[in-house]
UniProtKB/TrEMBL annotation:
Top-level taxonomy: Bacteria, Bacillati, Actinomycetota, Actinomycetes, Streptosporangiales
The species this protein was found in: Nocardiopsis tropica
Residues in IclR-ED domain copies: 68-260
Protein name: IclR family transcriptional regulator
Gene3D superfamilies xrefs: 3.30.450.40, Winged helix-like DNA-binding domain superfamily/Winged helix DNA-binding domain
Keywords annotated in UniProt: DNA-binding, Transcription, Transcription regulation
Residue ranges occupied by any HTH iclR-type domain in the UniProt entry: 5-67
Amino acid sequence: MPGRIQSIERAAAILRILATGARGLSLAEISRSLELPKGTALGILRTLQHVGFVEQDPESGRYRLGGGMLSLGTRYLDGNELRTRALNWADSLASRSGESVRIGTLHKHQVLVVHHVFRPDSSRQTLDVGTLLPLHATAIGRVLMAFDPLAVPEEDADAVEAGGAVTLPSFTRHTVTSPAVLERRLDEVRENGWAWEVEELVDGEVSIAAPIRDRRGTTVGAIGVRGAVERLRGEEGRPDMEQVSYVRDAARAISRDLGVTPY
């Protein structure tokens, strides 16, 4: 039997690592992460660019997944009942909130964005469908961690040793990296029925999310909005509760379409 083809394995590894970098990755970061010579990584990236699976930002030079990869994933995503049932409600939420909307599900202890509606204005935006986001630093991820037992492994795969203590990856100076503090936040999510985070994934941005449940009452995903902190954070450092109500209404509507009694 023929053996594995190393170049294909390396190309797949590059695609996987690009899927984790929402803002793209530089050649040096890709080379270092995969322990590949820069020349080898560059050759694979150029080939993937040629076939449309990777694109390069002309200003920053960073690489990200291209439209060809997203179109390949569309057959899976279109078959996803959650995404299919949520399309109209996600559009409605974007219109009501004036913010971008994402629907995410659990995928290997990360959030897989299965649907993304752009903020309804003329600003330049990047499609996030197919992107993998961290559970602990996003509102959608915290909803999944709070209500989906499969989202919290016995030993968090993202946790690392730092100075003798276990911490979670930090994306900004606001990211909650303590498992104990995160667990308290998750208790609040369970009590409130929704989650939010302030500048924990991206400086200057806030996200709010609520759970989507299927006909069995199982949390199968979450829907949320993301936008500028000055728009989504209300008085006294709390979230804009009108936006919270919009998100929860959308989550309830999708859950009803999936056969859930309103909650």
